[in-house]
Design a protein that fits this description.
Elements: H1 12-22, E1 27-31, E2 37-41, H2 42-58, E3 66-70, H3 75-86, E4 90-93, H4 100-110, E5 112-118, H5 122-128, E6 136-140, E7 151-152, H6 153-159, E8 175-180, E9 190-194, H7 195-205, E10 218-221, H8 233-240, E11 243-246, H9 253-263, E12 267-270, H10 272-284, E13 296-299, H11 306-316, E14 320-325, E15 332-336, H12 347-354, E16 359-360, E17 365-370, E18 373-374, E19 383-388, E20 412-420, E21 426-431, E22 436-438, E23 441-443, H13 445-453, E24 458-468, E25 472-481, H14 489-497, E26 508-511, H15 525-531
Parallel strand pairs: 1-11, 3-4, 3-5, 4-8, 5-6, 6-7, 10-11, 10-12, 12-13, 13-14, 25-26
Antiparallel strand pairs: 1-2, 8-9, 14-15, 15-16, 17-18, 17-19, 19-20, 20-21, 22-23, 24-25
Helix pairs in contact: 1-2, 1-8, 2-3, 2-6, 4-5, 7-8, 9-10, 10-11
The structure holds adenosine-5'-diphosphate (ADP).
Residues 181-182, 184-185, 228, 300-303, 322-327, 357, 414-416, 428, 431, 518, 520, 522 line the site of adenosine-5'-diphosphate.
Length: 543
């Protein structure tokens, strides 16, 4: 027997309807390329998103067509987040930090029909212009008339009649947007989000035990809108009626801190490298900014060192919340809040939990598979994390041969090697391909990196496996020292010796000025592995 409840589809237009009607007066702030601040409301957003949908239809964009963006976080990008899916089309966010060849591959693989390009990213787009074939290129924030073969965003919107908008989205399972995974795991793969997945993901992000996004929040997504939908904030903030602060192209610590102070930001979200840089700035210019409005810095994308979480709290009174997710999981997967049983536990114990990646969000199920089947939830047994849920990818877009990413019973294989404890907290020990196997024993690069980044003289650390004649692989640590500091390998070895078995400690430490990064700001270990593949450890002969 069917229940007797309404069957309204869970769609992006439904999120916008709520934002416009209930929170029409709430603000969206954007830092423009000239550094000035642009402000408008959810009511304005709704009008312009409808104009965009009408304009796209006028350009021949139909249901299922892909419309790409190559842009920073700004209000026009937000309009595309709503306007493109409302046109029945699929928003495809392009990663502006990718190499031109990879970008061209992705545009072609997705079959993008229209591309919206920020004026200041036009030189990047021109590098791939001859290799891609969109029907229309539209310039956003044009500061001069666009080239003859391109259109101008404002002119396009002005010419569109919002009253001519026809609602096209009736099925919540329809595709709404897509995002390609970046280069850390080989060829980029397209993840195709449905309206329903985005709606449910937004709803879950409002839960207090996940991100708790609420009407009173002022959200600053430092995470780019091309990285897993800026972790869903454009949609969840709209659903909650939260103010959004979009930093445009200015992601340096001083620019971010200025926004935090002046806009009274309550939640800011980004990868650890962003917060490590911000921490350094706060440490040296402690009194320059008022950050008292912040209730949470959300960190994810790669492991947040416990030392960083502690430093923000102790030195600046800022709460860092650690979360895990993937492009394939929309991305909200797990969030590490301290459980009620530990509310009064010693700080050290609470920190240990907060440094884990956390418990699954509602609707997300987890399990981990080892060589002999599923591992127990004992906080010790390592296995590959598998997840399922209504906002987890069930397949990749037009990508034959990726079947191994999904189990026969329909779970997604994350490639992350984890433990799960008896309270359901996962702890990521490595990505499967980053694990180091020395003399038959696994070494967790993440654990050593985090410990190294806890050394007062070290800012960044990546630990990679290097081939070794006797042990098959041994760890090499590649580190960046704090400016003006010159720690020795012996210092670092002694620092690690307090926490790790001798055989786990890297055999050598290489000092660089900076670590290579992926398009989403993570340390690019594949580049380090390539660079050090013929590395000879100084005392290799002694082994
Ligand atoms: P890419 O695959 O290009 O790195 P994603 O952003 O989808 O892009 O990356 C997802 C991966 O990032 C996860 O599989 C995991 O390895 C890593 N990751 C995400 N969050 C965390 C975290 N909090 N701690 C450790 N690793 C994380």
């Amino acid at each position: 027997m069917d229940g007797l409840m309404m069957k309204g589809p869970l769609t992006i237009p439904a999120i916008l309807r709520r934002a416009e009607t209930v929170f029409g007066h709430k603000t969206i702030v954007t830092r423009r390329p000239d550094r000035s601040l642009h402000r408008y409301t959810y009511a304005d957003l709704g009008q312009r998103a409808r104009r965009l949908a009408v304009a796209l239809a006028g350009l021949g964009v139909g249901p299922g067509d892909r419309v790409a963006t190559l842009g920073w976080n700004h209000h026009q990008h937000l309009e595309a987040y709503f306007g493109v899916p409302m046109a029945g089309a699929v928003l495809h966010t392009l990663n502006l930090r990718l190499h031109a060849d990879e970008l061209a591959y992705i545009v072609n693989h997705a079959g993008d029909r229209v591309v919206l390009v920020d004026q200041d990213l036009l030189p990047l787009f021109q590098q791939i212009r001859a290799d891609v074939n969109p029907k229309h290129v539209v310039i956003v924030e044009a500061d001069s008339p666009p080239p003859d073969d391109m259109l101008e965003y404002e002119a396009l919107l002005e010419a569109a009649d919002p009253a001519a908008f026809t609602p096209l989205v009736t099925d919540e399972h329809q595709a709404a947007s897509m995002c390609y995974t970046t280069g850390t795991t080989g060829r980029p793969k397209g993840v195709l989000y449905s309206h329903r997945a985005i709606f449910l993901h937004s709803l879950a992000s409002l839960a207090i035990d996940t991100l708790g996004i609420s009407e009173s929040d002022v959200a600053l997504p430092v995470v780019p809108m091309f990285h897993a939908n800026a972790w869903g904030i454009p949609y969840s903030a709209a659903m909650a009626g939260a103010t959004q602060v979009l930093p445009g192209p200015y992601l340096d610590p001083a620019s971010l801190l200025e926004l935090v102070q002046n806009e009274r930001v309550t939640v800011a979200l980004g990868v650890p490298t962003v917060w490590l840089a911000l921490l350094q700035t706060l440490d040296t210019h402690r009194d320059d900014w008022d950050v008292s409005s912040v209730r949470m810095l959300l960190v994810g994308g790669s492991a947040a060192p416990a030392s960083m979480i502690q430093a923000f709290e102790e030195r600046h009174g800022l709460t860092v919340v650690h979360a895990w997710g993937m492009t394939e999981t929309s991305p909200l997967g797990t969030v590490a809040h301290v459980p009620s049983e530990l509310a009064l536990a010693p700080a050290e114990q609470r920190l240990a939990v907060r440094a884990k990646q956390g418990r699954p969000a509602p609707c997300i199920e987890i399990r981990a598979r080892g060589a002999d089947g599923f591992v127990p939830w004992d906080g010790r047994s390592l296995g590959e994390l598998e997840v399922r849920g209504p906002w987890v990818a069930a397949d990749y877009f037009n990508h034959a041969g990726e079947g191994h990413a999904f189990t026969d019973d329909g779970w997604f294989r994350t490639g992350d090697i984890v433990t799960i404890d008896d309270h359901g907290y996962i702890e990521i020990h490595d990505r499967a391909k980053d694990l180091i196997k020395s003399g038959g024993e696994w070494i967790s690069s993440v654990a050593i990196e985090n410990a190294l980044m806890g050394h007062p003289d070290i800012v960044e650390a990546a630990v990679i496996a290097v081939p070794h004649p006797k042990w098959v692989e041994r760890p090499l640590a590649v580190v960046v020292a704090r400016p003006g500091r010159t720690p020795s390998s012996e210092d670092l070895r002694a620092h690690l010796a307090a926490r790790f078995e001798r055989w786990m400690i890297p055999d050598a430490f290489e000092f660089l000025h900076e670590l290579p990064r992926t398009g989403t700001g993570k340390f690019l270990k594949s580049a380090l592995r390539a660079r050090f593949k013929d590395y000879t450890f100084p005392d290799q002969e002694a082994w």
